[in-house]
Give the backbone structure.
Amino acid sequence: MILGYKKREELLKKYNLKRPPTELSLNPKQAVEVAKRIGFPVVAKISSDKHLHRTEVDGVIVGIENEEELGEAVEKLFRIEDIEGIIIQKQITGREFIIGSKNDQVFGPTIMLGTGGIMVELFKDVSFRIAPIDKNEALKMIEEIKGKKLLEGFRGGPKIKKDELADLLVKASRLSFEENVKELDFNPVIGNDHGLYICDVKIVL
Amino acid sequence: MIPEIFNPKSIAIIGATERENSVGRGIIENLKSGSAELFYVNPSSKKVFGEKSYNRITDIEEDIDLAVIAIPKEIVSEVVDDCIEKKVGGVLIVSAGFAETGEEGKKRQDEIAEKLSKAGIPLVGPNCLGILRPPVGLNASFAPGNPKNGDICLISQSGALIDSIIDGAKEENYGFSLIISVGNAAGLSLIDYIKIADEDPSTKVIALYIEGVDKGRELFNCLKKIKTPVVAIKGGKSEKSKKAICSHTGSLAGEHEIFSAALRQAEVEEVDTLSQLFDVSKALAWQSATGDRVAVVTNGGGAGVLLTDQLYEDGLKLAELNQDTIEKIENKMHPDYSKSNPLDIVGDALPERYEIAADNFLAQENVDVLVVIMTLQVMTDPLETAKRLVKLKEKHQKPILTVFMGAGKETTEGIDFLEENKIPNYSHPKRVAKPIKALNNKR
């Protein structure tokens, strides 16, 4: 069962996993109100337990700068079938990572860290552990991925605290172990000078 | 506690026979090399190898510590009933034709396992090669002869691999404290055996061949908890089935990636080949844990280069050769020696030059471990060099590993002396890096 918006957010809150400002809106009018409150630029994306990969139905629109653009985006998104609403989220820029979990048939819940973005499945720059893990093990995972350089201000990019990423991994591993999740994706987790943000979440119980 | 079945004083062989090329005969021949009293059970012959043969195990008056069963699968169950009646100390079922063959075999196996468990009698197998414990002279198996006594415990989910490992190790200097063929593990499990090996005072390292595990979490926790270092090779790496997966993580997390991650997390050294399994095992059994700063002394430049490449690939590094070490050794070296690490002491190096170089380099605080490379040249003296290295290992209490290259008589003499004194030797520079890495990871 893929968790819907509300249950997902509750679970994240329970494990003190922070999101960028994010709200679900059920109609176009509400979407505009939400975006004004959060502040542009925003991302608009469908919330649905029917569409496994939202990009396949063009269900994500990024870089929305103003009310006019938002109106167009929301109109388009609400035309997609089988959705529970539109998620409006503060647009975050920075380096992308993926944190995830899969319930392995031999070992049970696991935890994964990888370099994110569109190349993740191409380069498979990932590290695994059996969940739950402690902070020390989380730091080792960070050292194992090539993308760790992206944390260190690579080519003038943002500096991201390893410590904070490790904490996030520990919490995610506890969530997947204690709730015995089947699959979990935090993809992307975006890091910049201000912190780390879990931008997109998928949890399968 | 090591269960009694690993040190039986009396053993009954059910299915004892003189028939050439039979499993029963193979087991008898192996057991005869030990000191346990043997009893033969075979209702169709009065005598086996000139000794009395019993109709049933219950006809034997003496207590039986271990019953080894090598008979057709159909009659195993009734023989097990006899073993329970006889109150044997343990049962080892070599016979195949159980869970590995399908539903019917599984039923047969479960029934046997259940009644033995109820009677409190430990069960090894079925469908296994047997168990060997060279330090007490036990060879309850149909393996090809007796392996050397030593400190490696081999636990394998494949019996046939054990055969070839024993055969292959005949020319090697390492030996075994225990060899256990897990078989179908209807009674004692892989995890039980690992715990037994961890308790065994003769075992310094556990070498595992794993194919499949059902209680992965339990295995993981057990491996994490035990104190003996473990090296493992995992068979069945190719992906079989990918179930319906709907997350990115799911598609990235292959069964093998997770297995390797679990081993690493439990501080188990995973290797890819059987030769690596023992390359690493002997290093872990014989040498103490070490840091990652490697000193290299060599009488050949190329070998040092190859080693350097491999060390860095495996995440190790070369220690710096200090200026005051250079000053100390300079007038005793060849004028063209390298003055850096790898310390190339030039092709004509005699034992004394090796000793001076190794002694002073090992004395450096920034050196954790030493590798000594030797290529045989006309004046090289492997045995004498080996003797001096053994003394240096004592003196400095730091691990030394060697790469005496070649297999001629002189080199072999040197290698044998080194390994008898717990300095592991490797035939090629690239082979020594992974064992050092394992010592670096050793708990």
